């Protein structure tokens, strides 16, 4: 990371509390401290912030002859105590925003101009990096005003539809039933479909679980190049309720005694991007009732995995829930999921239709189906684990019967893609209007004399 080291410490510290950390017993720890700041930040955020910092450094180098420091550590200017300095810092952020808007290329070929939000995200990335090192950058009304102005100009030139996010569509339960009902022996790329094999058995189970829970891809599969850890579902993430008794590691004989409609698979959600330490949702289990009559019943597919690839005791903590080998130890990767989901979609849908979906479509489809079933917005947030106080309260009170009744209703809905537009919240993405409102709040709190 370009910004990992942080700003240099001041060399003119004349306080009686100052010290020369490089000469002490803990010199190595003082040197390592800045990098530790980043360990709790999601990888995706670090990548975005690194791009923002690269652009910020280039911008600062070109501001004037000799450039200006990228680390904005002038406390009096940032706080407004120094009015001329305050205006200087405001103008610096505004011009950086404008330069980004003029130079950032559109993400899609069909877009003639990048979205103002993309440029605003660069400013926010620079601010986040400063915040990690306890540096509060200037807040200003001017930046919010410029963001509004650029947005309105963008709308006038390219139309309001140019700001609409190009999100994937929701997968419906009926389409997912078609995917998992594809006959064994079907050719999928270089492989032949065999629902009894580890790869395809786990894919079908993953699809069924995703359709009934809204899990993100990063929670059920491993991003390419990363190590398997507790942010992914493991065999130990699933426990079973047999005739009212919860079992962490049932025997084969106990699994064979399970009764549809009475018994459950119970999933403990892993740490996620909106629950970094697992304390928000990890203690609120997901209940999946066993129903062997539905082709996409998640508990039934998980039971097939347990019977075909037994895993007992402590070994369940180390094994991924979804895997690709007979030893049940190689986690399903993102690229593998994407490849075979695409193959299966192309078998049942036209090319144009198939392109509308990704794995995230399971999460969108789960929420959309719940809405079509009459589920309230707050309960949808709770079931899909969106972060909000009211969602946690509702979710905490939800018993297995209520939870599974909503999942059952959702899996019997046939929804159109447009139904998703009725959802009052964005699915893992901030609406542009919400971002604009946040910007106004953020940048109008410290304007001296405004």
**How many structurally independent domains?**
2
Task: Indicate the overall shape.
Answer: globular
- Give the low-confidence spans: 391-396, 429-436, 445-450
Nearest-integer average pLDDT = 84
Largest sheet: 4 strands, antiparallel
Count of DSSP helices?
19
Query: DSSP strand (E) fraction?
Result: under 5%
Examine the coordinates and then state which fold CATH places here, giving the name of the CATH topology of the largest domain: hpI Integrase, Chain A
Give the C-level CATH assignment of the largest domain: Mainly Alpha
Q: Please state how the strands of the largest beta sheet are arranged side by side.
A: 4-3-5-6
Radius of gyration (CA) equals 26 Å
**Number of DSSP E strands:** 6
CATH superfamily annotation of the largest domain: Intergrase catalytic core
Any overview of this molecule?
This protein has 450 residues and is mostly helical. It has two domains: 21-165 and 432-442, no CATH class; 173-422, Intergrase catalytic core (hpI Integrase, Chain A, Orthogonal Bundle). The protein has helices at residues 27-36, 43-62, 75-79, 83-103, 116-132, 141-158, 173-180, 198-213, 217-220, 252-255, 298-308, 315-318, 334-348, 351-354, 360-372, 377-383, 389-396, 400-410, 432-442, and strands at 187-188, 191-192, 238-242, 245-247, 264-267, 286-289. α7 (173-180) packs antiparallel against α8 and α8 packs antiparallel against α11. The longest helix has 21 residues, at 83-103. The two termini are 37 Å apart. The model is unreliable at 391-396, 429-436 and 445-450 (pLDDT under 50).
């Amino acid at each position: 990371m370009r910004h990992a080291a942080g700003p240099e410490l001041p060399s003119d510290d004349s306080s009686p509390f100052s010290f020369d950390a490089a000469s002490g017993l803990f010199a190595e720890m003082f040197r390592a401290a800045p990098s530790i700041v980043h360990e709790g930040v999601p990888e995706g955020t670090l990548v975005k912030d690194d791009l923002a910092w690269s652009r910020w450094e280039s911008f600062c180098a070109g501001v004037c002859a000799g450039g200006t420091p990228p680390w904005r550590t002038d406390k009096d200017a940032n706080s407004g105590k120094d009015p001329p300095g305050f205006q200087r810092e405001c103008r610096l952020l505004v011009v950086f925003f404008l330069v980004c808007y003029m130079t950032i290329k559109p993400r899609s070929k069909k877009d003639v101009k990048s979205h103002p939000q993309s440029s605003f995200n660069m400013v926010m990335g620079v601010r986040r990096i400063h915040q990690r090192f306890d540096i509060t950058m200037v807040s200003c009304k001017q930046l919010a005003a410029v963001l509004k102005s650029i947005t309105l100009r963008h709308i006038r030139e390219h139309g309001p539809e140019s700001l609409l996010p190009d999100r994937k569509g929701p997968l419906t339960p009926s389409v997912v039933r078609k995917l998992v009902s594809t006959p064994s022996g079907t050719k999928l790329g270089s492989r032949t479909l065999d629902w009894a094999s580890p790869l395809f058995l786990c894919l079908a189970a993953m699809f069924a679980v995703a359709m009934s829970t809204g899990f993100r891809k990063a929670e059920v599969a491993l991003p390419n190049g990363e190590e398997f850890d507790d942010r992914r579902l493991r065999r130990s993430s699933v426990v079973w309720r047999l005739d009212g008794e919860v079992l962490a590691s049932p025997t084969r004989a106990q699994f064979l005694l399970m009764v549809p409609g009475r018994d459950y698979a119970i999933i403990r959600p892993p740490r996620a991007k909106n629950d970094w330490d697992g304390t928000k949702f990890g203690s609120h289990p997901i209940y999946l009732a066993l129903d062997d009559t539905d082709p996409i019943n998640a508990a039934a597919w998980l039971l097939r995995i347990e019977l075909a690839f037994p895993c007992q005791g402590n070994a369940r903590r180390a094994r991924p829930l979804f895997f690709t080998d007979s030893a049940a130890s190689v986690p399903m990767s993102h690229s593998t999921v994407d490849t075979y989901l695409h193959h299966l979609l192309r078998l049942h849908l036209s090319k144009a239709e198939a392109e509308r979906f990704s794995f995230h479509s399971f999460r969108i489809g789960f929420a959309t189906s719940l809405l079509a079933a009459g589920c309230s917005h707050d309960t949808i947030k709770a079931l899909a684990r969106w972060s909000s106080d009211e969602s946690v309260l509702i979710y905490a009170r939800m018993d297995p019967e209520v939870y599974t009744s909503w999942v059952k209703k959702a899996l019997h809905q046939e929804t159109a893609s447009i139904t998703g537009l009725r959802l009052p919240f964005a699915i893992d993405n901030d609406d542009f209007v919400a971002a604009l409102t946040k910007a106004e709040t953020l940048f109008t709190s410290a304007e001296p004399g405004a």
